[in-house]
Design goal:
binds 6-O-phosphono-alpha-D-glucopyranose, about 625 residues, 6-stranded antiparallel sheet, alpha/beta, Rossmann fold, Glutamine Phosphoribosylpyrophosphate, subunit 1, domain 1
Length: about 625
């Protein structure tokens, strides 16, 4: 949510900043802006919409050869989508420009104070108060340079921020800071590229410094200095960025979402690699080893997440209870701390998040930790905030996910949760035999996924028949109830078709009133304990004129007589089935969006990583 990139070095800053913004655009695309210091003057360009619009607006900027600058792509929180509200924001005295990701909670009182001091504001944003506050404190003649002014300003600020700041009277200095929002300092040869995530850095360098909360870093042409807000110097934390450039390139695919759907078989193999020990018939999760005893003795799990990760968590709830027999609750992370949760000894919280930066998930984690819970992370982005805040965890290893609608992260999350459930089950009560059978089936999942992504054109054919319908239902039972929720979410997110997912049995308690002639109803009707009941639900839909699209098990002899369209998935144990049944639903949403002419990778109003509560 909001992407920041800043550059100080010897090369021309503008193309590096624009390229960086394009890499970060998935974090928000309401508006974009850039500021550089050229020949001692601050030059700023901003535009609403995509980075491409900003590029066009740049023709207004003089040809600068500037080697210092910063840029921003915005997901609006405070203030509408206007050019005035686009970052960078400037002060009204010293030629200071600021880009910001996060929310300043006390901005209203700070703004009032600054207005009383004579500052004139241009925007409705919280960010502008940071620029003005730095400006108010900036007094180089009294020894308060940009770094000191930033430290002073941030001491007054409540909330979350990652910021980059430049000032036209300090053309060789870039000051950055973070608290609660991500920021990484890439260190190249004679240059620094600071960004919200590695995707904007790895084209230039893989050496980086990680910043802790309340760290301020001052980059100058020959020095780097990291300090606290109280100006106590802290040693920089060196890190190696592991992302490869080709992981974030589109390659032969038209969209990142399609690329990521197709990557699933290979990525899920990587998720499992080295973690399934077929010889011993057990799961090996090195990330949990230090807390082995506490986990085996845990008597309650809380799974907290948002969005797609929440749907993975809901599948996790079934897995942990069914396989490991541990009482498990699944929570909207955003609601968790507002209901005074009971955390007793033996409670373990599992935060599930692709980005590892989702503010709601982080807040739930913090709450549970404060109340004494052991905390685990199921995270994709290595070194992200949640990954660092948890006591232990298991990474997804699915590679960078760029498409805003999550796909491979979902199957990665379900795979990790399945492995965790089997890990605990075997150590608690599951027989070696049952465990071995499950592990074999788990290992076979990636090949089965590969056969599903190859069904792309079949799914498109089904979607084409219904894509003009504005209301869809998704039904499932048991393990595939969360899959139904995920199918509906995918369709909503990128095709803007209204879709509701629900337990198949719940339909008759209200939503059945929506069913009219030809309404598309996607029913997950794979073989398993709930099959007969789901078939009854299918008949209830058809009796009211609904058009049933069934996701069923290959070889099912009956289903074609009951459904209007059928998408087949290979057979597998019920507890593993969501990893397969979700794939046709992902493809369904992709094609619906494409046919309706929407931007699949950047759906309106959404952001990939939501770093505000
Ligand atoms: C946003 C994204 C969703 C994602 C959710 C949780 O809403 O648009 O696709 O599922 O955040 O993100 P996380 O990074 O915590 O998995």
């Amino acid at each position: 949510m909001c992407g920041i990139v800043a550059y100080l070095g010897t090369r021309e800053a503008t193309p590096i900043l624009i390229e960086g913004l394009k890499r970060l655009e998935y974090r928000g695309y309401d508006s974009a802006g850039i500021a550089v210091i050229a020949n001692g003057t601050l030059e700023v360009a901003r535009s609403i919409g995509r980075v491409a619009n900003l590029e066009a607006a740049l023709s207004d900027l003089p040809d600068t050869n500037a080697t210092l600058g910063l840029a921003h792509t915005r997901w609006a929180t405070h203030g509408g989508v206007t050019e005035m509200n686009a970052h960078p924001h400037q002060d009204d005295r010293h030629g200071i420009a600021v880009v910001h990701n996060g929310i300043i909670e006390n901005y209203a009182s700070l703004k009032k104070y600054l207005q009383e001091k004579g500052h004139t504001f241009q925007s409705e944003t919280d960010t502008e108060v940071i620029a003005m506050l730095i400006s108010e404190l900036y007094a180089p003649d009294e020894g308060i340079d940009l770094e000191a002014a930033v430290q002073g300003a941030l001491r007054e600020v409540n909330g979350a921020y990652a910021i980059a700041v430049i000032c036209q009277s300090e053309p060789d200095t870039l000051v950055c800071a973070r608290k609660g929002s991500p920021l990484i300092v890439g260190v190249g040869r004679g240059e620094y590229i600071v960004a919200s995530d590695p995707s904007a850095i790895v084209a230039h360098t893989t050496q980086a410094y990680a910043l802790d909360d309340y760290n301020v870093v001052r980059l100058s042409r020959d020095n780097i200095r990291t300090s606290t807000l109280e100006n106590v110097e802290v040693p920089p934390k060196v890190m190696q960025l592991e992302m490869e450039l080709d992981q974030i390139e589109l390659g032969a695919f038209e969209h990142y979402m399609l690329k990521e759907i197709h990557e699933q078989p290979a990525r899920i193999r990587t998720t499992m690699r080295g973690r399934i020990d077929m010889k011993e018939g057990r799961i090996v999760l090195g990330g949990l080893a230090a807390f082995h005893k506490e986990l085996v003795r845990a008597h309650r799990l809380i799974l907290a997440a948002q969005g797609t990760a929440l749907h993975a968590a809901m599948i996790g709830e079934y897995l942990f209870e069914d396989l490991a027999r541990i009482p498990t609750e699944c929570e909207y992370a955003s609601e968790f701390r507002y209901r005074n949760p009971i955390i007793d000894e033996g409670t373990v919280i599992v935060a599930i998040s692709q980005s590892g930066e989702t503010a709601d998930t982080l807040a739930a984690l913090t709450e549970a930790k404060e109340r004494g819970a052991l905390s685990l992370g199921v995270i994709n982005v290595v070194g992200s905030t949640i990954a660092r805040e948890t006591d232990a965890g298991v990474y997804l290893r699915v590679g960078p996910e760029i498409g805003v609608a999550s796909t491979k992260a979902f199957t990665g999350q379900v795979t990790v949760l399945t492995m965790m459930a089997i890990y605990l089950a075997r150590r608690r009560h599951m027989s070696a035999e049952r465990c071995m059978t499950l592990l074999k089936e788990l290992e076979a999942i990636p090949d089965k996924m590969a056969s599903l992504v190859a069904q792309d054109s079949t799914v498109r054919g089904v979607v084409e028949k219904h894509v003009d319908r504005d209301n869809w239902l998704f039904l499932g039972r048991g393990y595939n109830y969360p899959t139904a929720l995920e199918g509906a979410l995918k369709l909503k997110e990128i095709s803007y078709i209204h879709a509701e997912g629900m337990p198949a049995a719940e339909m008759k308690h209200g939503p059945i009133a929506l069913i009219d002639d030809g309404m598309p109803v996607v029913v997950i009707a794979t073989q398993g304990s709930q099959y007969d009941k789901v078939m009854i639900n299918i008949e209830e839909v058809r009796a009211r004129g609904g058009h049933v699209i069934a996701v069923a098990t290959e070889g099912d002899p009956n289903i074609e007589g009951h459904a209007d369209d059928v998408l087949f998935v290979p057979p597998c144990p019920e507890c593993l089935s969501p990893m397969l049944t979700v794939i046709p639903l992902q493809l369904m949403a992709y094609h619906a969006a494409l046919i309706r002419g929407h931007d699949v990778d950047k759906p309106r109003n959404l952001a990939k990583s939501v770093t505000v509560e």
